[in-house]
C-alpha cells in the first residue's frame, strides 16, 4: 500500500493536488476504491478512527480493578488499601513520567515511534498484571500497573500530538471531542463486561485467582488491538509525510528541557484550569455512588446509573460539542461556559433536593464542552515541535491533582460528609473560572488567537499562507 514515486508525482502535480481539488480519488497504485491522497477527507477520517482507537485498550483496562473490585478483594485476599495501590501506582509515577514522555516524543522518539513504545508498555504492563492475578502474586500485579502507567498517559500525549498534526485547523475541536468520546466508551464497556465475563468463566472453572487471571488476560486483547493501531498510525503518518513532503516544512528546531521555563503564560493558565476542573469530575464520580443513595434515597441500581451518566453523556455529546466549537471558534468562551454550567450542576447537587439526574445531565454536557475546547488551545500557543512536551506537562499536572484530590475527597467524606465535599468542589471550580477569565484577558492583551472566531482564524491563515509564498 506504500506510495510509489509515480504516485507521489501524480499527487503533487497541480492538476492532481488535493489542495486544488480535495475530492480527487487517486486510483492508481492503491486500488480503485481507496482514497490515497492524505489530504482527502475520506482518507483523513479513516486515519481518525485508527487514531481514536490508539488509547481504547488503555482506557478499557485502566478500570479493570474497579469493575472487579469485589472479586479481586475476595480472590486475592486484598484489603482496600492494597486494592487502591493499583491506582496509586498508575497516577503518582505519571506526575513525572508523563512530562518526560512528552519531552521524549518531541526530542527523541517522534510521535510514531513514541506511540508504538508507549502502547507496548501498556500491553506488557497489563499482561504482567494479569499474570500476577493468575499466580496470586499481588506484588507482580503492582509492578504490572506501574509498567502500565509508564505507557498509559504518555500514549494519550502521542494521540493528542497526532490529532494536531493531522487536523490542526477547522476540525481539531471535533477530533478532540471524538477522542474523548471513544475513551469514555472504553471505560463504559469495561464496567459493563468484565464482571459478566468473570461470572461466565467462573460458571465452569469455579471462582478463584485462576479465573480472575484468565479474565484479565482476555481483557488484554484490547491492548493488543490498540498496539496494532499504533503500527497502523505509524504507517499512514509516515506515508503522508513522504507524499506531502512534510519534512521540507520543518524548521529544524528541537525542544530543550530549559524551554519549559519560557513557555507562554497561557500554557500555565491552561494547566491550572485543567487540573482545577477535572478534579471536580473524576473524584466526584469515584465517590458519587453512596452520595446518590444517601442524599436522594436512590436504589443501588439507580444510583449506579446516575453516577455513570456523566461519562455516558460526555461520550455521546463530545463529538457534537467539538463540531459546534469548530464552527464558531471562541474556545475560551466555551471553556468559561462549561465551567459555569458545572458550577450550577454542583450547586444544585449540594444545596437542593431536585431530581439528581438534572444536574448530572448538565454536568455531562458541560464536561464535554470543556474537554473539547480546552485541549486544542495548546496547539494555538506553542509550535508543533514543543507540543508533545506541553501536553505531557498538562497531563502530569492533571495526574498530580487527580491523585491528591482523590485522596482528599475520600478523607473529607469520611470526616465531614458530602456537603463539605461539594463546597470543596465548588471552590475548585471557582478557581477554574477565575483562571479561565485570566486566560481570556492575558490572551486578549497579547492579541493572541485563543478566542478568535473560526472565520477570523481562516482569514489569518490565508494571510499567513500568502506571506509564506
UniProtKB/TrEMBL annotation:
Composition skew (Polar residues), residue ranges: 10-20
InterPro entries linked to this entry: MFS, MFS_dom, MFS_trans_sf, MFSD1
Region entry Disordered, spans: 1-20
GO cellular component entries: lysosomal membrane
Reactions catalysed: L-histidyl-glycine(out) = L-histidyl-glycine(in); L-lysyl-glycine(out) = L-lysyl-glycine(in); L-alpha-aminoacyl-L-arginine(out) = L-alpha-aminoacyl-L-arginine(in); L-aspartyl-L-lysine(out) = L-aspartyl-L-lysine(in)
Molecular-function GO terms, alphabetical: transmembrane transporter activity
Record has Transmembrane as a keyword: yes
Regions that span the bilayer: 45-62, 82-104, 116-135, 214-236, 267-290, 302-325, 332-351, 357-378, 390-413, 419-442
Keywords: Lysosome, Membrane, Transmembrane, Transmembrane helix, Transport
Membrane topology category: Multi-pass membrane protein
Sequence ranges assigned to domain Major facilitator superfamily (MFS) profile in this UniProt record: 44-447
Entry keyword annotation includes Transcription regulation: no
Function: Lysosomal dipeptide uniporter that selectively exports lysine, arginine or histidine-containing dipeptides with a net positive charge from the lysosome lumen into the cytosol. Could play a role in a specific type of protein O-glycosylation indirectly regulating macrophages migration and tissue invasion. Also essential for liver homeostasis.
Name listed for the protein in its UniProt record: Lysosomal dipeptide transporter MFSD1
Annotated organism of origin: Dimorphilus gyrociliatus
Amino acid at each position: 500500500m506504500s506510495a510509489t514515486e509515480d504516485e507521489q508525482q501524480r499527487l503533487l502535480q497541480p492538476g492532481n493536488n488535493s489542495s486544488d481539488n480535495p475530492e480527487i480519488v487517486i486510483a492508481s497504485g492503491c486500488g480503485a476504491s481507496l482514497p490515497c491522497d492524505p489530504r482527502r477527507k475520506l482518507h483523513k477520517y479513516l486515519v481518525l478512527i485508527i487514531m481514536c482507537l490508539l488509547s481504547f485498550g488503555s482506557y478499557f483496562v485502566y478500570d479493570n480493578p474497579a469493575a472487579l473490585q469485589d472479586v479481586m478483594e475476595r480472590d486475592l485476599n486484598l484489603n482496600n488499601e492494597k486494592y487502591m495501590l493499583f491506582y496509586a501506582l498508575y497516577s503518582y509515577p505519571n506526575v513525572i513520567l508523563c512530562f518526560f514522555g512528552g519531552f521524549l516524543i518531541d526530542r527523541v522518539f517522534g510521535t510514531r515511534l513514541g506511540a508504538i513504545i508507549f502502547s507496548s508498555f501498556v500491553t506488557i504492563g497489563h499482561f504482567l498484571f494479569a499474570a500476577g492475578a493468575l499466580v496470586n502474586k499481588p506484588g507482580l500485579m503492582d509492578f504490572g500497573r506501574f509498567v502500565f502507567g509508564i505507557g498509559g498517559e504518555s500514549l494519550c500525549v502521542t494521540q493528542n500530538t497526532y490529532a494536531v498534526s493531522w487536523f490542526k485547523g477547522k476540525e481539531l475541536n471535533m477530533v478532540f471531542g471524538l477522542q474523548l468520546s471513544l475513551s469514555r466508551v472504553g471505560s463504559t464497556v469495561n464496567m459493563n463486561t468484565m464482571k459478566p465475563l468473570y461470572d461466565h468463566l467462573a460458571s465452569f472453572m469455579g471462582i478463584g485467582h485462576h479465573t480472575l487471571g484468565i479474565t484479565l488476560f482476555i481483557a488484554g486483547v484490547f491492548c493488543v488491538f490498540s498496539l496494532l493501531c499504533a503500527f497502523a498510525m505509524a504507517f499512514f503518518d509516515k506515508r503522508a509525510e513522504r507524499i506531502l513532503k512534510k519534512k521540507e516544512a520543518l524548521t529544524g528546531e528541537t525542544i530543550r528541557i530549559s524551554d519549559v521555563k519560557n513557555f507562554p503564560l497561557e500554557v500555565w493558565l491552561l494547566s491550572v484550569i485543567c487540573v482545577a476542573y477535572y478534579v471536580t469530575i473524576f473524584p466526584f464520580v469515584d465517590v458519587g455512588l453512596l452520595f446518590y443513595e444517601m442524599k436522594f434515597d436512590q436504589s443501588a441500581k439507580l444510583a449506579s446509573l446516575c453516577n455513570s451518566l456523566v461519562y455516558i453523556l460526555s461520550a455521546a455529546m463530545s463529538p457534537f460539542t467539538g463540531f459546534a466549537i469548530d464552527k464558531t471558534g471562541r474556545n475560551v468562551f466555551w471553556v468559561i461556559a462549561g465551567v459555569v454550567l458545572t458550577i450550577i450542576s454542583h450547586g444544585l447537587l449540594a444545596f437542593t433536593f431536585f431530581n439528581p439526574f438534572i444536574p448530572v445531565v448538565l454536568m455531562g454536557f458541560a464536561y464535554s464542552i470543556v474537554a473539547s475546547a480546552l485541549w486544542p488551545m495548546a496547539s494555538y500557543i506553542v509550535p508543533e515541535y514543543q507540543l508533545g512536551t506541553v501536553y505531557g506537562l498538562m497531563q502530569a499536572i492533571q495526574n498530580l491533582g487527580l491523585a491528591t484530590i482523590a485522596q482528599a475527597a475520600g478523607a473529607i467524606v469520611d470526616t465531614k460528609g458530602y456537603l463539605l465535599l461539594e463546597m470543596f468542589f465548588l471552590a475548585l471550580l471557582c478557581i477554574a473560572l477565575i483562571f479561565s477569565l485570566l486566560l481570556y484577558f492575558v490572551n486578549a492583551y497579547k492579541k493572541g488567537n485563543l478566542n478568535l472566531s473560526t472565520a477570523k482564524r481562516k482569514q489569518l491563515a490565508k494571510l499567513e499562507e500568502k506571506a509564506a509564498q
